[in-house]
Specification:
The longest helix is centred in the N-terminal third of the chain and has 15 residues. The protein folds into 2 domains: 64 residues; 199 residues, Vaccinia Virus protein VP39 (Rossmann fold, 3-Layer(aba) Sandwich). Helix 1 crosses helix 2, helix 2 packs antiparallel against helix 4 and helix 6 runs parallel beside helix 7. It is built from 11 helices and 9 strands. The strands form 2 sheets. It has a 7-stranded mixed sheet, with helices on both faces. It has 278 residues and is α/β, with parallel strands linked by helices. The protein is elongated, with a radius of gyration of 21 Å.
Length: 278
């Protein structure tokens, strides 16, 4: 038998050799998953020998991570805004940057929210969990994404207040909302060749790129969202950190009077906030 510390050291070396970012962190998370213990307890079990079945499971997980399968897919979930969300290759992993959109949304009251391109459902589910009297609708073109979002709504106890619809953006949407949110595909097709293997090989392309210039969904939202907003309603959409000027111009040219670009925690342009459409 081998100790947990020795196993982690070997896994870290293997992942580092494979070019995996932050290999020690991933080695620790995967061992915790293989041993069914909390990641915070790994240092406590480091001197202990690990059972053969755990060692075999761990080696399998590390081998998959070495070929750049995302950690979230291996453990089945990703943390977002203090909650764990179930994920799969059907949806985009929740990203820390998207928490900036959540903060902006929660800064003002809302009762009804529409989430366009919901993916894992992390945005809608988080907003409903944080605002216990609110209700919402989430749409996604992918049936797999709708199923994943529904599962996360159940997991976090908001399913009775959430309606998940398979829809091509606004196609199946009815009614008006105080808040429309979206993390749309904003990579240009030309950028796809340079993305990390975790994205290129294991996340849905339709959640990453519009297949065009990365701006087509913002044009769609800017031109159609006013039909679905209440008088004081807001639109919040995540964007690439270099897209601020272009996205602002799209909304302003569509007649939105109040357009603000909000930063993420690193100070980069991340969220467009638009109100008062023409």
């Amino acid at each position: 038998m081998t100790t947990a510390a020795v196993a982690m050291a070997a896994a870290t070396a293997k992942l580092r050799a494979a070019g995996v970012p932050d290999p020690a962190r991933d080695a620790r998370i995967l061992l915790a998953h293989a041993a069914s213990v909390d990641a915070a307890r790994i240092t406590l079990i480091a001197p202990e020998e690990i059972a053969p079945e755990i060692s075999e499971r761990y080696e399998h997980l590390v081998s998959l991570r070495a070929v750049r399968v995302p950690v979230s897919h291996l453990v089945g979930e990703r943390a977002f805004y203090g909650r764990g969300f179930k994920v799969s290759r059907e949806v985009l992993d929740p990203r820390p940057e998207t928490e900036s959109l959540i903060e902006a949304a929660l800064a003002e009251p809302f009762e009804r929210v529409l989430d366009l391109g919901t993916g894992s459902g992390c945005i809608l589910v988080t907003l409903l969990a944080e605002r216990e009297t609110s209700t919402g609708v989430a749409v996604d073109l992918s049936e797999g994404a709708c199923l994943q979002a529904s599962a996360n709504a159940v997991l976090h106890g908001v399913a009775e207040r959430a309606q998940i619809l398979q829809s091509d953006w606004f196609e199946a949407v009815e009614g008006r909302y105080d808040l429309i949110v979206s993390n749309p595909p904003y990579l240009a097709q030309s950028e796809m060749a340079a993305i990390a293997p975790e994205l290129a090989l294991h996340e849905p392309a339709m959640a990453l790129t519009d297949g065009e210039d990365g701006l087509s969904v913002y044009r769609l939202i800017a031109s159609r969202a006013q039909q679905y907003l209440t008088a004081q309603g807001r639109v919040l959409a995540e964007m690439g950190w270099q897209q601020g000027a272009d996205v602002r111009a799209i909304f302003e040219s569509a007649g939105w009077a109040d357009v603000v670009i909000l930063p993420d925690l690193d100070g980069r342009d991340r969220v467009i906030c638009a109100q008062n459409p023409a």
